[in-house]
Design brief:
Carbamate kinase; Archaeosine Trna-guanine Transglycosylase, Chain: A, domain 4; 2 domains; 40% helix
Length: 388
């Protein structure tokens, strides 16, 4: 059945990020080349329609397992990294050969979270992706499993796809998995379980549904997809979860058919830089504020000055993302500091004109400038704007 709401969403999607999970690409023999060929066939139709496409693809480790001839999935991190190193070339070659039939070129982009948490590298990645899209080339993005360790992991490709959707200012994120969408109960246990076709707000009830869904073979699951949906919809990007093993799934989606689950987005509110601060960076410390500073940040849109700081927690350098806390440990927001934790400890509670006298120099009057600060309630409100 054609949905006018979906038709409106997909008709306006000129730039699309398509995440293909391990559960879609992987068979007992490794990467399923038939699935890759079929998806590339459908993506070529999107390109013929004038749409730009970015693929976020799992499958490097599975491809390596097949190529090496391993009898089981590697268990240690070095083994997984080695399998990824062997498989990554085969994976990108499979995409390259599949798209060659349609005279389309691909480019491999391997990232770690450090590449996106560093502002300069984030912008470099953004410019590279933009240039590739301008050239009509299809970027194939994956986490750089050959070098990644726990501290720099994205977590899973659901999270990575959400960050790429924001990075590229996409109009739509499609997450292809091995189930038909989000069910209202576990379909393995209830014959009455049905797909939720549209979600306008991700609340506790919806999160509860995700915990009951059948597991997938990759590192992500339905819970991680909901977290990705929260990120992108708060940035104004709708998301669809659908079964990537269904034939013509992308055609059905772009015809406006009610397949999978659509997460409706709110209006794009945050700037690209503030999206980066809110959704990509991991806070490295905390600053406790007095009531006046908390009000100035929350209600007046002001910058944070040293005079309103009560205490500092953690060790961090200038430029680091830091949580700002008010009364009763309430999180007010996250911002980029102009001073290190050691420096803030020395200037807390004093007026800005005293900073140079205390430190012997002054980077800025503000500890956190308002342009580098994101209110927690702003991000929450964007999630709420998905509707009820």
């Amino acid at each position: 059945m054609i949905s006018q709401e979906r038709k409106q969403v997909v008709d306006g999607a000129q730039r699309v990020v398509i995440k293909v999970g391990s559960s879609v690409l992987t068979s007992k023999h490794g990467v399923d080349l038939g699935i890759i060929n079929r998806l590339c066939d459908e993506i070529s139709m999107l390109r013929e329609q004038g749409r730009q496409v970015v693929i976020v693809s799992s499958g490097a480790i599975a491809s390596g397992i097949r190529k090496i001839g391993l009898s089981e999935i590697p268990k240690t991190i070095p083994q997984k990294q080695a399998a990824a190193a062997v498989g990554q070339g085969s994976l990108i070659r499979a995409y390259e050969e599949a798209f060659r039939h349609y005279d389309l070129k691909v480019a491999q982009i391997l990232l770690t979270s450090e590449d996106l948490t560093n502002r300069r590298r984030y912008l470099n990645a953004r410019h590279t992706l933009q240039t590739l899209l301008d050239w009509g080339i299809i970027p194939v993005v994956n986490e750089n499993d050959t070098v990644v360790v726990e501290e720099i992991k994205f977590g899973d490709n659901d999270n990575l796809s959400a960050l790429i959707a924001q990075l590229t200012e996409a109009d739509l994120l499609i997450a292809l998995t091995d189930i038909d969408g989000l069910y209202d109960s576990d379909p393995r246990e209830s014959q009455d379980a049905s797909i939720i076709t549209v979600i306008r707000r991700i609340d506790r009830e919806v999160e509860g549904f995700a915990g009951d869904q059948p597991g997938v073979t990759g590192t992500g699951g339905m819970v991680s997809k909901l977290l990705a949906a929260k990120k992108v919809t708060s940035a104004g990007v709708p998301m669809i979860i659908a079964n990537g093993r269904s034939r013509y799934i992308l055609k059905q989606i772009f015809d406006g058919e009610e397949v999978g689950t659509l997460f409706v987005s709110g209006e794009r509110r945050l700037s690209s830089k503030k999206q980066w601060i809110a959704h990509t960076l991991k806070p490295q410390g905390e600053i406790l504020l007095d009531e006046g500073a908390a009000v100035a940040l929350k209600l007046r849109g002001k910058s944070l000055l040293s005079t309103g700081i009560i205490a500092v927690r953690g060790k961090f350098e200038d430029g680091a993302p830091v949580r700002c806390l008010g009364n009763n440990e309430e999180e007010i927001g996250i911002g980029l500091v102009n001073y290190s934790a050691e420096e803030i400890e020395k200037i807390k509670g004093v007026r800005s004109h005293k900073i140079e006298e205390i430190l012997g120099y002054k980077h800025s009057d503000e500890v956190i400038h308002r342009d580098n600060f994101v209110l927690s309630e702003t991000v929450a409100a964007e999630g709420e704007s998905q509707g009820t």
